[in-house]
Specification:
This protein is an alpha/beta fold and about 350 residues long. It has 13 helices and eleven strands.
């Protein structure tokens, strides 16, 4: 049962990200104004700096709670060491609010490794989940494609990828509103015999899982939209994500170089200005707010380091939606049901992979 009848409480790391605290506070104000009165926000971090930003935005009278956290985990900090040493950091304090039941979700655009480590230390994993996964959104010809894992787990076993498929499928269904998500396994060829030991073993598990498994997909199939959910280990997923993040600026620079000094090309570009703007918007990660960390015993959205106010606002909307639809409960129920049928397969796979 979701939280449809009560206020959804979200703790936000106000000190995380390249543009903190301004972008975080501004985005939080935007998110509050969209969801009020069904939302309660808590900005966690340096209280004086947060209050200063609220006053500059003329939002100091809004019922947004400020929770003081005097320490900050920087982007350059070692994630695990920082989480252990900086107990009063905005990340630790924000997640503790969720652990204590004072918040239903947590959002941070800070140090990704620290957010993930602190989430595991403070919140723990959902029962039945072996490894949490970071899910990222990719544009495609057919709509949004969810790819996971994109960085939480460099080394995986087959049953980890199976669980990623379950979690990604349920997220796609309940949050992205895809009726019967197609799940694909990222590999070097469509044939089930293609790939390394991990992908071959994972294919066997996914094929007998009851998911809407469409088989192996190649890198080019992500943008085609062949699958709604694509699973892979975090090493491969992070390489794909970082490459994808570079394509927008690359294409933009190439187009500018081609039209520079050519009046006919410049005139054509002027006529296509609206189309270019629409294309750029389709690549804007801010529309999705951030990447959900699926599999932890709570709701956590990890924003990009350079998150804009728009991205933070949308992260709040997504976090509220996850809480409202009780996605974690659905994931846990589904995994427990599947584990009954896949225990034997998991045991056999463990003998094969890694």
């Amino acid at each position: 049962m979701g939280k449809s009848d009560s206020k959804i409480r979200i703790a936000i790391d106000a000190m995380g990200g390249d543009n903190a605290p301004f972008s975080i506070v501004a985005g939080s104000v935007m998110g509050y104004r969209v969801l009020q009165p069904k939302i309660q926000l808590m900005l966690v971090g340096n209280a004086e700096r947060i209050q200063f930003e609220l006053e500059n935005l003329k939002a100091e009278k809004l019922p947004i709670e400020v929770v003081d956290a005097p320490e900050v985990i920087d982007m350059s900090d070692n994630p695990i060491e920082a989480v252990r040493q900086k107990k009063k950091s905005s990340i630790n304090v924000g997640l503790a609010l969720q652990k204590e039941g004072r918040a239903d979700a947590f959002i941070s655009a800070g140090n990704t490794g620290a957010v993930m480590a602190a989430s595991l230390f403070v919140l723990g994993r959902l029962k039945g989940v072996s490894r949490p996964a970071i899910a990222a959104f990719f544009p495609s010809e057919e709509g949004v494609v969810l790819v996971l894992d994109v960085g939480a787990n460099s080394d995986c076993k087959a049953h980890h990828l199976f669980q990623f498929g379950v979690m990604g499928s349920l997220y796609s269904k309940f949050i992205l509103k895809v009726k019967n998500p197609k799940v694909g396994l990222l590999s070097i060829g469509e044939e089930q015999t293609k790939g390394n030991e991990l992908t071959i073993a994972s294919h066997k598990m996914l094929d007998s899982s009851g998911l809407n498994f469409c088989g192996n997909v190649e890198g080019r199939d992500i943008l085609k939209g062949t699958a709604d959910v694509v699973v892979c280990d975090g090493f491969v997923g992070n390489v794909v994500l970082k490459f994808a993040e570079s394509t927008g600026s690359f294409m933009s620079n190439c187009i500018k170089q081609k039209i520079r000094g050519n009046p006919f090309a410049a005139f054509g570009a002027l006529l296509m200005k609206g189309a270019f703007r629409s294309f750029k918007q389709s690549l804007d990660s801010a529309d999705h707010g951030g990447a959900p960390l699926l599999g932890i015993n709570g709701v956590c959205i990890i924003g990009h380091g350079n998150s804009s106010p728009k991205a933070i606002k949308n992260a709040i909307l997504v976090a509220a939606d996850m809480v409202r639809k009780n996605v974690n409960s659905v994931i846990q129920t589904k995994l427990n049901a599947n584990n009954l049928d896949n225990n034997k397969a998991v045991n056999n796979i463990d003998k094969i992979v890694l």
